[in-house]
Amino acid sequence: MSIFDKIKSVGKMFTDNLDDVVGKYVADTDFLEGAMAACAMIAASDEDGVEASEKAKTAAFLRTHPTMKHFGIGKATGLFSKFAGEFDFDYEMGCDSCLKEISEVRGDEAKRTVVARLALAIAKSDADFGAQEKVAARRIVEALRLNPADFGL
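Above: the chain sequence. Below: its structure as tokens.
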């Protein structure tokens, strides 16, 4: 298997059947809050707050990806904006706030895995999954008590 095929297979892991599994959590507020906190943390990973381009990328994903049809776009984007705002003053304080919210789902292994997959799918949606985003993703996966290697991190 070529390196390109390996990269593609890791990328597919984040999106394959994601729609089916996310649908199980449609009424789960903790799930959506954890997922949007994780997305905000990845979006803020350059440590300069959440830039307009990151907000636009995330909003586009939330509007267009079939996985998100289970949630009201207003609710998801509102939560994302709330968590993104946590980074306006201090990056680490924003991370602490988001990681606290993310940790609310770690009691359920299936749910925490889906939160990690959804956050990584959004992070990779622009095909530019940079080093700082990977560091943030690793922190999220570790906060969920999952193995970063299982997610290619």
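Residues 1-15 have pLDDT under 50 and may be disordered.
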